[in-house]
Give the backbone structure.
Amino acid sequence: MSAQAAEKKRRTPEEYLAWERAQPEKHEFSDGEVFAMAGGSREHNLIVGNIVRLLGNALLDRPCEAYPSDMRVKIPATGLYTYPDASALCQRPEFDDHHADTLINPEVIFEVLSESTEAYDRGDKFEQYRSLPSFKEYLLVSQQRILVEHFVRQADGSWNMRVLRAGDRVELASLRCALAVDELYRKVFDAGGMPR
């Protein structure tokens, strides 16, 4: 999804949340500014749907939760409110307030890359996510080809990255499950790797 400035009026986090909860569309909030979130492509939506379905199935009989892009995430260290394409955790969820619609302790976050958001997802957004103590794994999923970049936080705080392609499995250690890369792209590309 791409963010576009929604309004020039600066808001407090409390004003943003009160306003956002009444809106039909989603908006990101950063440093007093509100940004409208643009809709995704067919490929983007299929991939996100596959991610959420696969996570939900993998975590079905365990005390874990997987959320689609409607679950807002707050980064307390920076004040960013954002909507990852998918997030999950196997610890008790913690929320910003009693509304339980703003998660503050995701363990795993997925972002499906688009031209308009790729630099942000790789750079500033990833940097802000890393300030979350609970955050352990980050997956950047291409919608142009079958390619997943899996970042894993190490014990010393550094991050290792593994590139996964067709035929590979994403091992999500913090969720104790694995997802087939081919299943993340189900119905997105034909056998030749072209969009259907």
Observations:
- The radius of gyration is 16 Å.
- Helices lie at 13-20, 42-58, 118-122, 124-129, 181-184.
- The CA atoms of residues 31 and 79 lie 7 Å apart.
- Residues 42-58 form the longest helix (17 residues).
